[in-house]
Amino acid sequence: MRERTFSFILLALALWISGCATAPQQQESKAVLGAEVNETMSLFQSNYPAFETYRKDSYGYAVLPKVFKGAFWIGGAYGRGEVYEQGKMVGYCDMKQATLGFSFGGQFFREAIFFGDKAALDRFRSGQFAFSAQATAVAVETGAAVKADYKDGLAVFVMTDAGLMVDASLGGQKFKYLPQ
User: Fold this and answer.
1) Which long-range contacts (CB under 8 A, 24 or more apart) does 1-6 make?
2) Domain spans of the chain?
3) The whole model's pTM is what?
4) Under a CB-based contact definition with an 8 Å cutoff, are residues 170 and 133 in contact?
5) How far apart are CA 42 and CA 88, in angstroms?
6) pLDDT tens readout for residues 78-122
7) Dihedrals phi, psi of 14, to nearest 5 degrees
8) Vertex 131: Cα angle to 129 and 137 (nearest 5)
9) Bigger pLDDT: 82 vs 127
10) Fewer CB within 10 Å of terminal CB in the chain, N or C?
11) For residue 71, what pLDDT is reported?
């Protein structure tokens, strides 16, 4: 019975994710997302010394302020955010993730992806952008050197908000971009 309940929850999560729009539809929802992005950037700046340097030096970045991830062997995650090019908001993005493996629980996290140059941002906007188990991005940790290198034009910051999750799975994140 327990497995059936978790399978139903995961199926409901998958259906909910597939129906989510990349950009908020209402002006009020866009304002809320913008405020959440600003809050996320402030939290990253407080907790990661290198964050502000990346923000200033990058060609662009995407900030996803609220990503939910849940799993029971099979997992899924969804979140949406804003995309910036040379400091100006140019569009919206969403991230969908699927995983398979030893995964149990749920959590909320925040994610910021920095693009070292125009080519990296253009790859992101193309709709062909995804992270895999062998992610091409560098995960920057608290206290990291201010001049950490980009990997394949990308640097990623992740901050867990709440939840409890055991995760040793393989999967990937797929991103979708929508111009403003």
Assistant:
1) 3/72, 6/72
2) 2-179
3) 0.77
4) yes
5) 17
6) 999 999 999 999 999 999 888 777 777 888 889 899 999 999 999
7) -65, -40
8) 105
9) 82
10) N
11) 80
**Residue where the block lists tokens 């990058």:** 58
Indicate the residue type of 153. G
The yes-or-no verdict on residue 144 having pLDDT over 90 is no
Report pLDDT for 62: 96
Does the pLDDT value for residue 136 go beyond 50? no
Q: In degrees rounded to 5, what are phi and psi of residue 49?
A: -55, -30
Burial code of 148-158, b = ≥16 C-beta within 10 A, e = fewer? eebeebbbbbb
Given a cut of 90, whether residue 63 has pLDDT beyond it is yes
Q: What is the DSSP string of 69-138?
A: EEEEEEEEEEEEEEEEETTEEEEEEEEEEEEEEEEEEEEEEEEEEEESSHHHHHHHHTT--EE-TT-SSE
- Cα separation, 176 vs 174, in Å, equals 7
Residue 21 in tokens: 């729009």
The amino acid at residue 160 is T
Q: Which residue carries 């939910």 as its tokens?
A: 68
Return the DSSP state at 153.
T
Give Cβ neighbours of residue 144 (< 8 Å, ≥ 6 apart). 48, 49, 50
Amino acid at 117: D
